[in-house]
Write a structure and sequence with these properties.
Blueprint (H helix, E strand, L loop, with lengths): L1 E5 L9 H7 L4 E4 L14 H14 L6 E4 L11 H21 L3 E4 L9 H18 L6 E5 L12 H10 L6 E6 H6 L8 H11 L5 E6 L1 E2 L10 E2 L9 H7 L8 E4 L4 H13 L5
Parallel strand pairs: 1-2, 1-10, 2-3, 3-4, 4-5, 5-6, 6-7, 7-10
Antiparallel strand pairs: 8-9
């Protein structure tokens, strides 16, 4: 696995690669705009050029870069005006990734807000079909992230992700990001049944569609349906699931991104913990 972290873009996206390199990251995730705003400043030519030059200079492959979309986006918002606003914002997110050469845009499947899971999943398909139609030929893949299932959030079952991917008109434009904290909190026992969970994922979705991991321990118990990240080895997952992941040859070239609560102050410690588990 190619290990890295979500790093700040304060001062411009071109500042992220040197920061990631200083933290010993080989993979990077960023926000390409403020994650709590609908509209971001356009990416400047100098920032875009600097991002690409710094990646090359520091030996970080563009294939191991990801972005995460705005937290405001809900592609199955029950109010049509809000859904349309989310579609427009997501189109902008993909355009920004395409400009930067970032191959993966991670998103949480939406929240149905008490309208029901089947309804929400169908609305997600409608939204993605609109997004893909607006951006023909774009290379950036959307990665649906596994969720803990808190509240009315979709994506806590592998079947949810499979439904979206199978029903959009362009399934080749959608992959999966597996968050270790979220998946465990959702009820997938990677602590005691790693092989079984991966086999279930492969049966329902297909491991070939698993393009990135978010590597987080969990503050909450197995099956709690609560999303609370913890530093690696300090939560309810412990080290064993991560030992399996970093030594799984199927994921040797897949980015594994830390989003641990100690953030940049603790990323080196967390990366060291993960690397200490590698045996092959």
């Amino acid at each position: 696995m190619v290990l890295g972290a979500h790093v700040s873009t304060a001062g411009g996206v071109d500042k992220a690669p040197p920061l990631a390199h200083s933290l010993t990251c080989k993979a990077i995730q960023i926000f390409t705009k403020n994650q709590n705003q609908w509209v971001g400043k356009p990416l400047g030519d100098a920032n875009v050029r600097g991002w690409k030059e710094k990646l090359a200079e520091l030996g970080i492959s563009p294939t191991h870069t990801t972005s995460h979309d705005s937290y405001l986006i809900n592609l199955c918002a029950p109010v049509e005006e809000n859904r349309k606003k989310s579609v427009t914002a997501f189109i902008d997110e993909i355009e920004r990734c395409e400009t930067l050469g970032i191959p993966f845009l991670v998103t949480h499947p939406g929240s149905h807000l008490k309208n029901g899971e089947e309804w929400g999943l169908a609305e997600m398909v409608i939204s993605f079909d609109e997004i893909h139609a607006a951006l023909p030929g774009y290379k950036t893949l959307t990665l649906l992230e596994t969720t803990a299932g808190q509240g009315t959030n979709l994506g806590y079952k592998f079947e949810h992700l499979a439904y979206i991917r199978s029903n959009v008109k362009a399934p080749e434009r959608i992959g999966i990001c597996l968050d270790t904290c979220h998946t465990y909190s959702a009820g997938y026992d990677t602590v005691n049944k790693y092989d079984e969970v991966m086999a279930e994922f492969d049966r329902i979705i297909g491991l070939e569609h698993l393009k990135a991991f978010h590597l987080n321990d969990s503050k909450k118990a197995f099956g709690s349906r609560v999303d609370r990240h913890e530093d690696i080895g300090y939560g309810t997952l412990g080290l064993e699931p991560f030992r399996h992941l970093v030594n799984d040859p199927r994921f040797a070239d897949v980015p594994g991104i830390l989003e641990t609560p100690s953030a940049e102050d603790g990323y080196e410690k967390n990366l060291m913990a993960l690397r200490s588990l590698i045996t092959q």
